[in-house]
Amino acid sequence: HVVAELVRLVTVPLASGSDDDVALRAAQGAAAEDDLKRMYKYPYMASEVLAAEVPRITAALTSSDLHMNAFFDFVTTARTPAGTVDPFLAGHFAKILSTLLRIAPAETLPHLRAAAPTFLPALLENIAVAPMAELLVRIGEGPDNSEAARSYAGSTPLTSPSPDAMAILAAHNALGGVAAYFCDAVSAVDDRGESQVFVEGVTNAVQVLVSLTMRVLQMPPLKLTIPPALNLYQRPDLVGGLLDSAMAAYQKRHSTTPLVLVLSMCADLVVNDANTVPETYTEKDAQEIRQYVPGFTDWPAETENARLLVPVMPLEQELGNRYEALADMLRGVTEGEPPVELVNTAGTIAPPLGQARLKIAEFFVASLKRASAPVCEVLDRLEIPKELLDLMVKYCWSSMLHSVISTAVVSAMEEGPEQCRVLWLRAGLVDLINLAWEENAAREKENGRGSFRVGYMGHVVRMSVAVASMLQATPMEKALLFASKEALQKFDKICSTALVATMNVEEKLLGGERPGMKGKGESEDDMEEPTEVFSMEDVIDSLPDQAEPGSADGIDSRAAAEGSDGAQHIEEEEEVVTIDVGEYEERDSGQPAPYSSRRAASSTAAAAADTLFNGEDDTDSSDGDGTYESFRPDDGVDKEPGNGAVMENGQMPEALAEVDKEQVAPHDSESSDENGDDYVRFDATVEVETGGSGGDSRK
Question: What DSSP line would sit under 569-591, residue for residue?
Fold first, then answer.
């Protein structure tokens, strides 16, 4: 009964109007405060109990078909007026189910498999609710497999996916259901714009597709076979359908969000670090783990990167069928629509770049980076690299676009494949760089040296350095295949004059070099130690030690000592002796000699140290009775035994009686002096600071 009530609190919202809730509230006359507790506090407490990882509670829940059926019914029955599950309860539901799958998969998976025909479709309908979308990915998680995670040489620690759970998702076409939800939502949007539920739904759908893909890419290194139904690389038709619906919504100017999301996903799929064999794997290891990727051998090896884990070629072919339409969108061509103009401080921009066209540029850059032969052929025919460079000049203040293109160019020149380098050079990269430098020089000549540069010049400088390094290692006859002799000569002149001057300016430290700063070619050992410019101690030493009582300075001093919170702070003296005193026992009576503990003033520090080290007091600054006031015993206080001095007739020397005490083990020898007086010896360490910033000490 307890578990049943906990499940009901988590799965039945108060606003549902269930018979039990209505009867209970009518009988108890529940007030508004009770309703709030029932809506928020009690479900939270119930979820904490059910997800507490207590074996008896977990067993009581998973061993009962009645409890588990009621639990899974939450997704199919608990509805808000908007038609979705209650978002608050959804978080608790997802937490409990994720915990059960992790700590008790053998007991939980049979219930999930039985509920899947109705549970998974209902879960897909509620993908706009974030916990439900996350749960679709969490279902595939298995128990932690630390051994497998340690044996995997990738950059990310892995938890082994559950083959049984992944099989359930594959059997019920989870990928197809998510794609269908996305396409239906995008098709339903109209010129009234995007609602919040729509944006959250399509965003969660794309995130689920990407997350499931990342999950299946973890399986081969862990020697688990990828279910083809969950491999987005082997289902390119789903990606093509997503892109078609998103492009249609964009062309109708109904929504931009779906196109941005899908293109971002496509770029991640085309260039995905997780879809590579770990660098530490040999070719034999790579072949061994590829046997867990069904269909890998169906694609010729020469068309694929040798280090790919899952073939990308099917997906690239599907996307290639839409390159031409995407190229038209990149150019700003929209049939039947007047151009949109944006007026700002940079002038009139028609049409504006927009996030969709920026994302198309990123997608094409990712495709260029992959540089497979069929894709490069299509992109070259459509003149995509040239279009990207032209956009960089046209939108001279779009720093995000400049960063995307310049990063791609620099990467291609420094470490990219030959095909990618050829495409950029054939697109007129050298001519564009020359033109940018000439226009910038003309601008400086017209407006003066102090005028600001064109927005893309910083990125042009980066590309110039990369291209210059690449051409330096390229024979002239080969370089002439991509640029004219005049263009190469002009570029060489720019590199030796304007580029060198610009690099010298950029490398110059703002404000000049400072003392002790490491210069070029200078090691850390050659650096000059910075000298002390200002010392607060000298200022503090020059202040008066104590103000006259009742003066304004005295009030200020007390206020400063107390601090802002009113706490009393005690300033330490410059010359202080601290003697640690631990336990000792008197030989005869067994009672400790009385003393008090206090910091000694500087006027008696030397006397205390001499008494300790020399066994006698040879100073004259006493109170006349052989004792020092600062060390006078205090007989009226409860005492603790001490160490660190010579005991004479069971008593501490007066000059050492009042010291800081600390429990220190005594010397384990007892003896008598030359006069026959008994004494007990103890060991101690004394540090005497003589003041000043240097701090001279002796032990």
Answer: -PPPPSS-EEE-B-----TTT-P
